[in-house]
Amino acid sequence: MTPRTSPGPRERLLAAGQQLFYSQGASVGVDALLKEANVARRSLYEHFGDKDGLIAAVLHRASAEDLAWYENALAGATEPRARLLGLFDRLDELVATPDFRGCRYFATDLSFADPAHPAHAETDAFRRSLHALLVRELEAMGHAHPERAAEQLHLLIEGTLVVGATQDGHHPGRAARDLAAVVLD
């Protein structure tokens, strides 16, 4: 029988940070993070330096998960155009879930006015990765202007996430899908 190991302090801080920063925002207090993670204050400073380091690490971790979500959403079809349009169907489903709180990257950027805050490097990296994913799909379908179309699709994605967080009962993914079809054509 293999002994069951529980996550260590670093992993518990990352999990607590990811959950609390998404549900309550980046302004959540250190004490709430420590309580949720069930760790001592020293663990935060040993593993992340400070709360800003934890925020950056949480965004880095969430970015990998979110990019995997986008890849999975695209995998719903084989033809590139259908893959991209299907992405907006999945976004519409996502924003309709009860625990949806909007785009973590947009919210983070709004939370930190200092452009040198380490969180901005993570939000920028995520957006570059998402842009590259969109360009890849657009190139696969032979789009004449994949870079520009990727910018337009990304704008539709961000708009879907923002509207989805602020307007219950609406289906922004459906409207964005219609606009995406125009970009793709």
TrEMBL record:
Species: Kribbella capetownensis
Keyword field: DNA-binding, Transcription, Transcription regulation
GO molecular function, one term: DNA binding
DNA-binding region coordinates: 29-48
Keyword DNA-binding: yes
Start and end residues of each HTH tetR-type domain: 7-66
InterPro entries with a match to the protein in the record: Homeodomain-like_sf (IPR009057), HTH_TetR (IPR001647), Tet_transcr_reg_TetR-rel_C_sf (IPR036271)
Protein name, UniProt field: TetR/AcrR family transcriptional regulator
Keyword DNA-binding belongs to the record: yes
